[in-house]
Amino acid sequence: MALKQDNIDKIYLRIEALRQYVAVLEDLKNISYEDLKSDAVKRGAVERYLQLAIEACIDIAELIISDQRLVSPTTYKEAIYVLGKEKILDEEFAKKFSEAAGFRNILIHDYVKIDYKRLHSYLQNNLSDFHRFIKEILGFLK
């Protein structure tokens, strides 16, 4: 079933925002673990832009789920995973990428418990997941 045009437009707006957030994160990618840990401004930028990028993905997932009347997720993590179960995203990728939604919860709610090694690792190793998410969503929209 095709998506409603207004939802397609909303998804494209979020994809554009997501690309901008990931571009900022790519610019911060070379920060060392020590800098990330000691520089509150850089750390805050990484945390905030990572949160925004993850939230854009969740918003896209929720728009598709609502539009297509798919099973309503009970968590943000499930929102990404539902797209995998419905073959909108590759299922194995969706399972792995849904962990980002769990990390978003830490960034927002358990910010005093943020593991800076994990944050640094995510910055160094997982930004390509956002590019893949965009690519797979664009493939679904076509």
Please give a handful of descriptors for the protein shown.
142 residues; mainly alpha; Four Helix Bundle (Hemerythrin (Met), subunit A); 7 helices; elongated
Structural class: mainly alpha
* Rg (C-alpha, Å): 15 Å
What's the overall average pLDDT, rounded?
94
CATH superfamily: bsu32300-like
Any idea what the CATH architecture is? Up-down Bundle
The third-level CATH topology is Four Helix Bundle (Hemerythrin (Met), subunit A)
- CATH C-level label: Mainly Alpha
What percent strand?
A: under 5%
* Cα separation of the termini: 12 Å
List the quaternary state of the chains: single chain
SSE arrangement, N to C? HHHHHHH
Number of helices: 7
Give the overall silhouette: elongated
Main β-sheet description = none
**Uncertain segments:** none
Instruction: Kindly give the count of domains.
Output: 1
Number of strands: 0
Helical content, roughly? over 70%
Please specify the SSE layout and strand pairing.
Elements: H1 5-28, H2 33-38, H3 40-67, H4 76-85, H5 91-109, H6 116-125, H7 127-141
Helix pairs in contact: 1-3, 1-7, 3-4, 3-5, 4-5
What does the model show?
The protein is mainly α and 142 residues long. The protein has one domain: Four Helix Bundle (Hemerythrin (Met), subunit A), CATH 1.20.120.580. It is built from 7 helices and no strands. α4 packs antiparallel against α5.
